[in-house]
Amino acid sequence: AQKVTQAQTEISVVEKEDVTLDCVYETRDTTYYLFWYKQPPSGELVFLIRRNSFDEQNEISGRYSWNFQKSTSSFNFTITASQVVDSAVYFCALTGEENNAGNMLTFGGGTRLMVKP
Amino acid sequence: NAGVTQTPKFRILKIGQSMTLQCTQDMNHNYMYWYRQDPGMGLKLIYYSVGAGITDKGEVPNGYNVSRSTTEDFPLRLELAAPSQTSVYFCASSLAGAPVDGYTFGSGTRLTVV
What we know:
The complex is a heterodimer of chains A (117) and B (114).
Chain A: E1 3-5, E2 10-14, E3 19-21, E4 24-26, E5 32-39, E6 46-52, E7 59-61, E8 64-69, E9 74-79, E10 88-96, E11 106-107, E12 111-116
Parallel strand pairs in A: 2-12
Antiparallel strand pairs in A: 1-4, 3-9, 5-6, 5-10, 7-8, 8-9, 10-11, 10-12
Chain B: E1 4-7, E2 10-13, E3 19-25, E4 31-37, E5 43-51, E6 54-57, E7 64-66, E8 76-78, E9 87-94, E10 104-105, E11 109-113
Parallel strand pairs in B: 2-11
Antiparallel strand pairs in B: 1-3, 3-8, 4-5, 4-9, 5-6, 7-8, 9-10, 9-11
């Protein structure tokens, strides 16, 4: 079965610090997709990124960057120069052929990031 | 373009009551999903649908039922509500599986069973 583990349940940093959120996954699929979602205090889920299993290039989007390493089954998320508005729960999620035809997402437990001013 | 609309946003149910959580999308997406999020936890899939007339169970389907008579609507029915169903429910949709721009989620329904 597919599994996503976010070992850090809660992280607290001071504004302008860099912070990395860890995500480790398990799957038997050769083709799979990894996602990161942000859930701010308002509760909605905001899509951040999708990465497919054949693309190991790191991605940078402004202060956000993602490091995908198949060798360690990890898809870590780094926020550079964190801001108070980054305070949220962040979810890593996975889908692939093992999740059957519906391509349903398997979510990790989430990491609550608190950025203090 | 409203995206995925869920109603109601909040609801309190008594044990044994039933209700339907509504979900509508206006993006002509084929795939629709219902997830629940328990406090401090990730989301777990309840049911999903890959098109009108087709539904299937997810990870935690017990106590729920769904139907998909149209592409737009995917209601979730709770029969005989139990305290264990206290959760936040999210509906989501996508044009196909594993979309490049992610799945679109509704804003959630917070349900409390007392």
